[in-house]
């Protein structure tokens, strides 16, 4: 029971915080936040390799990826975009895992959270099942 209440509060607080940081992306892009305590962690490097293996699929799904570390955040597929702000890491790693991903939909809400790297198959499956993605696919040539 307490775990469920904590999860609900976490999602609400995180959604409000995300709205502040990611307003420019809302209704334009889905976001994948890749949060890691260490820049050289095995899980982080594995996740980045997975994501870099199909950038076309990520683009088709309007996915923007942020790598969030204790001292920095960046979009890992565009090495020139760095934002230095320890606050982001603390906000998105409230449960203190060493690694976690958060998938945020076009509407700005959290769609999926997990503490291990996500495969492209699973990521694309989650996104492709979303109603807005279904509508996008119907209108694609």
The profile of the biggest β sheet is: 6 strands, mixed
Helix content bin: 40-55%
Q: Which residues form runs of ≥5 with pLDDT under 50?
A: 6-19, 79-85
CA radius of gyration is 15 Å
Distance between the termini: 47 Å
The CATH topology label is Glutaredoxin
Helix count, DSSP H or I runs of 4 or more residues: 6
What strand line-up does the widest sheet have?
4-3-2-1-5-6
Q: Mind telling me the CATH class?
A: Alpha Beta
The residue-averaged pLDDT reads: 78
For the record, what is the CATH homologous superfamily label?
Glutaredoxin
Q: Approximately what portion of the residues adopt beta-strand conformation? A: 15-25%
Number of spatially distinct domains? 1
Annotation, overall tally of beta strands: 6
Just name the CATH architecture. 3-Layer(aba) Sandwich
Structural class: alpha+beta
Report the principal-axis shape. globular
């Amino acid at each position: 029971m307490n775990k469920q209440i904590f999860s609900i509060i976490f999602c609400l607080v995180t959604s409000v915080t995300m709205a502040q940081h990611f307003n420019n992306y809302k209704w334009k892009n889905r976001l994948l936040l890749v949060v890691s305590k260490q820049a050289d962690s095995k899980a982080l490097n594995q996740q980045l390799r997975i994501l870099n293996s199909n950038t076309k699929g990520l683009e088709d799904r309007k996915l923007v990826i942020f790598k969030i570390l204790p001292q920095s955040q960046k979009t890992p597929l565009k090495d020139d975009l760095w934002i230095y702000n320890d606050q982001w890491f603390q906000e998105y790693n409230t449960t203190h895992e060493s690694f976690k991903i958060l998938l945020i939909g076009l509407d700005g809400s959290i769609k999926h959270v997990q503490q291990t790297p996500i495969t492209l198959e699973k990521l694309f499956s989650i996104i492709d099942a979303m109603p807005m993605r279904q509508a996008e696919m119907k209108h694609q040539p």
